[in-house]
Design a protein that fits this description.
The complex is a heterodimer of chains A (223) and B (414). Chain A is α/β, with parallel strands linked by helices. Chain A is built from seven helices and ten strands. With 414 residues, chain B is an alpha+beta fold. Classes of the chains: A alpha/beta (223), B alpha+beta (414).
Chain lengths: 223, 414
């Protein structure tokens, strides 16, 4: 489903050009659970952003679900993120002061889903992440683990082909972290493709496949 | 219904965002409200002002035209001539055959020296004018007591007088009806036949008609008798009424030409029309109104800058949120629209509140002064359109900056 070939990316900081990705070839099939690992500065988050269609590439080719992504404009990229991708961040990135339900509805507003459908789909994903009784709570009234569940529900609500997950347990204690990882495992068993960046090996162990980056190239790829 | 839902959802997002920063939102709403109210108030006041001026000028006869000798004539042969250049022969000729645009004409005769005006031991300092029986109609005067001069009063030089309310007060006491009583002007005894209705004299009222005098402190007598008292057939000027307001300039031209055909060798003539005064007053008032509107617009501009300021702050504070929204599927256009909508919601709310403030102010002013100042649908529409435009104009730059944020950098923003 995902096919990356010869992906190169560098950042420009003033006059200095910092190469981040130096030719990445990677294929990921539907239903896989892939952990991307590597020390900081190895380019794993940049790779994740490119896979999530948040960032552009300098060279190479990237196709997602049969579409060539690297040639698209802002509007089409936004559409791909809306239809095919669900994001989960280390810091949850919920919008404060609006309820869990309204946070989860946001991606559907950008996808122009009508109100009735939004309600039923929100209820369904809330049940899926086990937060039905917290629908009307605002983020500050929820624990870290619950906030991350809301974020996962938000990522799932448009039925994406792919979950793009960045350090999902980085802001959680180990108990909550474990529960969140169990949830990802369950979602993967249900057929959701997951690509996750982490630097913790025990978290990466939840995935079937571990890809290790070093200095912008794939150092190791084991299943 | 799809599009309705589309805008409803996005409007709701704007409301949530504004609710998050209640104080800031309220303050910027107030900024716009004050601006809109100020513009409306200035508009109402200037409209009321021109109404006031117009209605006052109207009480002196909108169709009035005056013709008199041109004292600035430089021709040395004519300069040596004495006198007003107008007499009864001119009057009769004018009346007979002067001008197609002429409706009514009265001679205006003033006394050379001030006469003592008294009743018993009470005195008046009123201005005495010799006029004919058409004067009241020409000058748009009404009587509260008694009657106008009759033609015979003029012809027979009857010692009758029509007096103004101030004269009544000075000679007989406020509110009394002196019709039938006598007053002395100089050495002659006059019988009061009528009392003039009070005229507003707040503003510009003394232009023209009473020669710069208080319109309520006048005594009118038959011009024939006044000429006899003066010992002269001279007429100071003619006060005419044109057939219509549009004919005023025509009549002015005709009267001047007619008189110069008759007496051109000895005198030149000049004319004034009420239309010119109205035009002058109108120009002054629109100038004042323009300055007022500009001043009020500046407060609206400041309101707009306020919105721009809070939107910029808001964009900065919500950088991460913008990144998140992009990550979950918002396009640049979606973000642009969201922030524009927030600005428009602020400015429109401000516009509505300003409209209510401005309208109440105008209505209060209207009831206090009696001018028809109630805001029209046009004014309401303009106020709302202007406030929406202020919202778009002041929200656009911050909104565009928000929409162009790079999602990755925005998400990383602390």
């Amino acid at each position: 489903m995902i096919n990356l070939q010869g992906i190169r990316k560098s950042y420009h900081m003033g006059d200095v050009t910092v190469p981040v990705l130096n030719g990445i070839d990677l294929s990921i099939e539907t239903g896989e659970f892939v952990a991307i690992m590597g020390p900081s500065g190895s380019g794993k988050t940049t790779l994740l952003n490119i896979i999530g269609c948040l960032d552009s590439i300098d060279a190479g080719e990237y196709s997602l679900a049969g579409e060539m992504v690297n040639t698209l404009d802002d509007k089409s990229m936004a559409r791909i993120r809306s239809q095919h991708i669900g994001f989960i961040f280390q810091l949850f990135n919920l919008i404060p002061r609006i309820s869990a339900r309204r946070n989860i509805e946001l991606p559907m507003i950008y996808a122009n889903v009508n109100k009735a459908d939004r309600y039923t789909r929100t209820s369904k994903v809330l049940e899926r992440v086990g937060l039905t009784d917290r629908a009307s709570h605002v983020p500050t009234q929820l624990s870290g683990g619950q906030q991350q569940r809301v974020a996962i529900a938000r990522a799932l609500v448009n039925n994406p082909d792919l979950l793009v997950v960045d350090e999902p347990t980085g802001s959680l204690d180990s108990k909550n972290g474990k529960e969140i990882m169990q949830l990802f495992k369950k979602l993967n068993t249900d057929g959701v493709t997951i690509i996750m960046v982490t630097h913790e090996t025990d978290i990466a162990a939840y995935a079937q496949r571990q890809v290790r980056l070093l200095d912008g190239i794939i150092d190791q790829d084991k299943s | 219904m799809g599009w309705l839902q589309f805008y409803y959802d996005r409007l709701l997002q704007a409301f949530y965002a504004l609710r998050d920063n209640r104080l800031r939102s309220v303050l910027s709403v107030l900024g716009i409200a004050v601006g809109i109210a100020a513009v409306m108030a200035v508009g109402a006041v200037s409209k009321g002002g021109s109404y006031l001026v117009f209605s006052e000028l109207e009480t002196f006869g909108l169709n009035s035209v005056w013709v008199y000798r041109d004292r600035n004539d430089k021709d040395p042969n004519r300069r040596v001539r004495k006198g007003s250049g107008l007499d009864n022969y001119d009057y009769y000729a004018m009346k007979e055959a002067c001008c197609s645009a002429l409706d009514k004409i009265t001679p205006m005769v003033f006394n050379r020296d001030r006469n003592i005006i008294q009743t018993g031991n009470r005195y008046s300092n009123a201005r005495v004018s010799g006029v004919n029986s058409d004067y009241l109609e020409i000058n748009n005067d009404r009587l509260i007591h008694g009657r106008n001069f009759r033609k015979l009063d003029i012809k027979r030089r009857r010692a009758s007088a029509i007096i103004g309310p101030t004269v009544v007060e000075d000679l007989f006491g406020k509110g009394s009806n002196p019709v039938g009583k006598d007053i002395r002007i100089g050495i002659r005894r006059f019988t009061v036949v009528g009392v003039l209705e009070e005229k507003s004299r707040d503003f510009l009222a003394s232009i023209g008609s009473a020669g710069g005098q208080d319109a309520n402190n006048r005594i009118l007598v038959p011009f024939t008798l006044f000429q006899q008292m003066n010992g002269s057939k001279a007429i100071n000027f003619f006060h005419m009424k044109a057939r219509s307001l549009d004919d005023a300039d025509l009549l002015a031209g005709q009267a001047k030409a007619f008189l110069e055909r008759r007496n051109g060798k000895n005198y030149k003539y000049k004319t004034d029309t009420m239309a010119t005064y109205i035009g002058t007053a109108d120009r002054i008032l629109s100038g004042v109104a323009l300055i007022g509107v500009i001043a009020a617009s500046i407060s609206l501009l400041v309101g707009g800058l306020g919105i721009m300021n809070i939107m910029s702050t808001s964009v900065l504070e919500r950088t991460r949120e913008i990144g998140l929204r992009k990550a979950i599927g918002a396009s640049q256009a979606d973000i642009l629209m969201q922030f524009l909508l927030e600005a428009i919601v602020i400015s429109t709310l401000g516009g509505i509140i300003g409209l209510i403030l401005g309208a109440s102010a105008s209505i209060i002013l209207a009831t206090l002064t009696g001018f028809p100042l109630t805001p029209t649908p046009l004014v309401i529409t303009i106020a709302l359109v202007v406030s929406i435009m202020v919202g778009v104009a002041s929200g656009f730059l911050p909104a565009r900056r928000a929409s162009r944020l790079h999602p990755v950098e925005a998400l990383r923003y602390e």
